[in-house]
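ok so I'm stuck.
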Amino acid sequence: MVDRGHCTFVTKVRNVERAGGSLAVIIDDNFEDVNKVIMSDDGTGTGIRIPAMLIGKKEGQLLKDFLTKQPAEIAAKASLSAEFVFKNQDNKVKWELWYTSTNDKALDFLRNFHEVNKELLHGSSSGDNLPEFSPHIVTWACTSCDADFKRRECLSNGRYCAMNHKGTYI
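replied:
not stuck anymore, here's the structure
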């Protein structure tokens, strides 16, 4: 378990993995609906092999309080397991692709997948069971950019900016 803040989700998860953790549980640093927070890849997440989740600040504090009330020898042996269960109530295939405008592999995938997707959509005998595809473009907030740059290159005063191939804001 680690607290959120001061670095990206990817860095947090990678640090947990490097420390020997098999699951990263990140405790939010704000009282907010964590179901609306996207733990996105900052572009450096390749190679991470452990699952990660974000839990609310209140729930995280409950876990911390429980552990601190235990004798040291018990707390040292404590473990936490998680099960990721995704229910598919309507029996439809739903898939998402999260990418940036500068991710050449994702753009190549979209271009090359076009023909396969047409076969998927036309191969179904019933229109009710068509796969649902949702593409999402990931953006970053430009917190250190000057006002002129934000006005020229970003949306919502620097809240939504794309990154170029060099990892800098365009």
